[in-house]
Amino acid sequence: MSTNRDNIADDHSDIIKVVDFRPFLDGSNKEIVANALLESFKTVGFVYLVNHGLSQEKIDGMFEMSKQFFALPHAQKMLAPHPPSGTHHRGYSAPGAEKVVQHLYDRGEISEARKRTDVKESFEVGREDDNLMPNIWFPEDILPGFREICLKFFWDCFEVEKNILRALAIGFGLSEDYFAKVHIKPDNQLRLLHYPSISTSALLNEEVSRIDAHSDFGSITLLFQDDIGGLEVQGPNSDKFIPVRPIPGSLLLNAGDLLMRWSNDTIKSTIHRVRAPPFTKSETTPDRYSIPYDLETVVDCVPTTWNADTPKKYEPISAKDYIMRRLAASY
Length: 331
Ligand SMILES: O=C(O)CCC(=O)C(=O)O
Ligand SMILES: [Fe+2]
Description:
This protein is of the alpha+beta class. The chain has helices spanning 22-25, 30-43, 56-70, 74-77, 107-113, 146-171, 200-204, 257-262, 319-328; strands at 18-20, 46-50, 91-93, 121-125, 189-195, 198-199, 211-214, 220-225, 231-234, 241-243, 251-255, 272-274, 284-285, 288-294, 298-299, 317-318. The strands form 4 sheets. It has an 8-stranded mixed sheet. Helix 3 packs across helix 6. Fe (ii) ion binds next to loops. 2-oxoglutaric acid (AKG) is lined by residues 191, 193, 211, 216, 223, 225, 231, 272, 274, 290, 292. One of its GO terms (molecular function) is metal ion binding.
């Protein structure tokens, strides 16, 4: 039987670079960081950042809260239910509710894909004053502090994001605030994910999935992952997938569809998925927790990426229009 081991690349050492963000933050060498970041986005679409400015204590605190939330009884989690439509992406989704798909918009094709459930549960949070997608909370006494920690983490990630966007602008030879100034009121999404422990053979034989191959919708995703592994990204110019090993203290960045479009396709929005961690021997694949933070915005091709010989491929698009279309297909 074919398994998901068949299309794993053999040599995956150091394809995804580790970039030390400190010289950008302390101002000692902004350009070297900016160039390394942009180069990684252009070649593989993913990069690890270390010394990114967000304390390990805050990251650990968010993971701890996330674990406590997912450990609650189902009925309590369902007091903050994700609405039936994918376009209000907030609150709790039980395993099977969300099925991430790659550019499927036909209802028949979507229901075919949904037959292979994503065995994961999630909780999505945005900014409190987002009228388009209001947050959905359960009563505070069910898990005191959950709401506060989620919102603090949301805004802490926004600070990291602004520095990343500044570095990206420098990489493109633009003014430092080029990207940051259109992310003033972030329509961002903090996503707590829990992949419950599951039979390894069911994952390997593709009876179920953790998250199927997809690209992210927004401009950039900041991804925090625990030490279990299982995330894989498609290698440059290849259909093989590369396991992305967890690196303690790092933050994984990846470019999404909108940044690809914004950069006139010079940056890659790379397909990725979550499967059984590499070399798993045990019959049961353990629980895995991850926390993606997705950035969203308004997009037109960056000036230095197009000219008379290489014209713009895309017209400007609002992030909202693009993302609503893709979210609607996920539920
Ligand atoms: O859990 C992960 O590591 C990846 C999650 C992901 O790709 C997503 O939520 O878009
Ligand atoms: Fe993703």
